[in-house]
Amino acid sequence: MKLPAYPLITVDPFFSIWSKSDKLYDGPTYFWSGIKKRITGTVYIDSIAFRFLGSGQSKVINQTDLEITPYITKYTFENEYIRLKVSFWTPLVLNDLYVLSVPCSFIDYEVEVIDGKSHDIAIVFSAGEEFCYDKCIKRVIKTLGTAGKMSYGKIGRVSQKPLNKTGDSVSADWGYLYVCGGEITFGLTKKNAVKSVFKIPQLTGSVKARNIVAFDDILSIEYFGKRMTGLWKEKFSSIEEAVIYCDEHHGELLEAMNEQNKKILSDAEKFGEDYCKILTAAARQVLAAHKLVRNTNGDLLYLSKECHSNGCINTVDVSYPAVPMFLVYRPELVKAMMTGIFEFARMPVWQADFAPHDIGTYPVADGQVYALRNNYGKSINKRTIYKNKDFGIFNQDCQMPVEECGNMLIMSYAYYYVTGDVSQIKKNFDLLKKWADFLVKKGIVLDNQLCTDDFAGHSEKNVNLAIKEIMGIACFSRICEVLSEDDNIFYFETAKKYAEDLCGISRVKDYLTFSIGKEESWSLKYNLVWDILFKFNIFDKEIYKGESEKYRDELNKYGVPLDYRKDFTKTDWMLWASCLDETGENIKTFSSSIVKYLADTQDKNCFTDWYETKTPKERGMNHRSVQAGLWMPVLKEKLSEVQEDERS
Fold it and tell me: How far is the C-alpha of 575 from the C-alpha of 595, rounded, in Å?
């Protein structure tokens, strides 16, 4: 399977390392944003060096195979003397949230002698000091220690200032890198690299070894003035204790990841081999775009970084496309995506009748800085926005009112629909009602406003946005019904009436236009999928058929454009829209077009969700949590199975 970049260490937005080379030794390794964070690997055979990882001067041991599964990247290297297998994986165990949040990643080695002779083998792994700071070189300290049976080398800045930097493409300018396993030294070249050596004398058969690479960020998130550690520190008192746990439980953690691999591929196989491939390409990056912490009330917070967009933390319109994967495998994390938004919406500064866009810039969640007025941008303390009482600090033209209200209403009901847990919708019913009433008041002919589809510019009378509005109102009607509130019929009838009116003024043949009044326009109506999933039956099924046929008509080599204005697409929305097709063929066809893009693109970055459909050129967004939206066909299938069981 060919990818633009290959996942190696995938933990969180500050600890995510990738190879941009099809051959692991053909280039350096990188932080997801493109900053060099170099790890290197060399195997010595009778004192002769053969490089297998990263760039360098020594000869290489030929890479003969590369196997990518959703959670494991496995390379095979071979020459006339030995076969070396190297596996990169992180214990992203979705059924154990403490382990999911542990900042430890494995590199497993297996060496097998294949020429029938005895050889002295040494495996050398190193990681550079650049893991300890952003782009500018800083003074570091080096420490040796032990964690259980593992020796480790630790490096970090002399001056530690956790959470002192925010932004999109930045890496952490604080924290300590640990390389565990083997004999540890610190290199004399390449600055202060920490080096691990496994010495295996007179090997005639095979042997296994492993490194654990860990990153202790000290503090993970600033949340409305309070500084928080990762959830893993509730279970482990130190990074050393976490390393010991991972080392001692290596076998069962690997088995857990193999089981998650099987589960994802089993869920995907119905939709074809190409669909399996795109889920494989997305699985690790969507988890590594989040950080898991807990607030002082004991509520989980699963906070995304809006990678390569603007660096916002906990963006609503980034969480919304990500929910399918989490609704399938760990719905509790969807609840944890919304908690921070509900809390910020109750802060003094948020005086709007609509939902906020985000709660800060990663890793500082002290209130929305998106859409601050220019004259406030430099003078205001961005770490006390949540305390501010002047809503005028925000530029209203840059808000996304209908978008975020619809997203929060749909996500809230989706979480209840899958779990039956009413706690969040009950606690926040007042906010949900305010946001639903805002949508009702807006009506279906929407003014010119920002929405998540404005990649080709602002738009007015946006039909897909109106569909989201209708779905949000319908979801609120069901929330009222669940909580025995009286107004559920009013909201559902309003949603039905709005849908009928919208179709009446935007329908061309059996599909809907992009914008009301523009008969030549069209777009992906991905928000319609909830009408199917929740069995609302608000829209005519002929619309689904007509939309699906229109998408096939507009299909280019690498996918269906987002709308008629430009040739670029969004992978998440393309797969959501594919679910409108009752035959299932669009899922397979669109998946195939995405796989073609992955194979043909020369842009060596993480799996982008935004690219051109006529040429394999990305538009500039990588490492995005929104790729969890590619699981929408699986979510649709799972909910359909549950509904079928209930009927029988």
Answer: 13
φ, ψ of residue 605 in degrees (nearest 5) = -135, 175
CA distance 158 to 479: 53
In this prediction, residue 648 has a pLDDT band, given cuts at 50, 70 and 90, of low
158, 140 contact by CB (below 8 A): yes
* CA–CA gap between residue 579 and residue 146 (Å, rounded): 52
* Of 506, 633, 608, 512, nearest in space to 563 by CA: 512
- Tally of residues, the chain: 648
Return the CA Rg of the chain. 25
Distance CA 193, CA 498 (A): 62
Q: Averaged over 230-253, what is the pLDDT? A: 98
For the chain, the average pLDDT equals: 96
* Kind plus residue range of the DSSP H or E element containing 322: helix 316-329
Residue type, 528: L
Instruction: Give how far the C-alpha of residue 92 lies from the chain's centroid of Cα atoms, to the nearest Å.
Output: 13
Q: Which residues are CB-neighbours of 52 under 8 A, at least 6 positions away?
A: 24, 25, 41, 42, 43, 60, 61, 63, 75, 77, 84, 86
| The pLDDT of residue 360 is above 90 | yes
Q: How would you classify the pairing of strands 221-223 and 364-365?
A: parallel
The sheet carrying 226-228 orders its strands as 226-228, 221-223, 364-365
Tens digits of per-residue pLDDT, 152-184? 999 999 999 999 999 999 999 999 999 999 999
Alpha helical stretches, state H, 330-422: 332-344, 374-377, 401-419
CA dihedral sign of residues 51, 86, 65, 45: positive
Q: Which residues face 569 on adjacent strands?
A: 611
End-to-end CA distance of the chain: 41
- Once rounded to an integer, what is the mean pLDDT over residues 204-209? 98
Residue 38 has pLDDT above 80, yes or no: yes
Whole-number Å distance between alpha carbons of 16 and 157: 19
Tell me which residue of 464, 491, 484, 485 sits closest to 407, measured CA to CA: 464
**Considering only CA atoms, which of 245, 402, 409 is closest in space to residue 319?**
409
Q: Is the predicted pLDDT of residue 646 greater than 70, yes or no?
A: no
Residue 377 has what pLDDT? Answer: 58
Q: Which residues contact 603 (CB under 8 A, 6 or more apart)?
A: 4, 616, 617, 618
Answer left, alpha or beta for residue 491, where phi above 0 means left and psi between -120 and 50 means alpha.
alpha
pLDDT 10s digits, 87-102: 999 999 999 999 999 9
The mean pLDDT value for 16-30 works out to 98
How would you write 254-298 as a 3-class SS string? HHHHHHHHHHHHHHHHHHCHHHHHHHHHHHHHHHHCEEEEECCCC
Tell me the C-alpha distance between 378 and 375, whole Å: 7
Single-letter residue type at 452: T
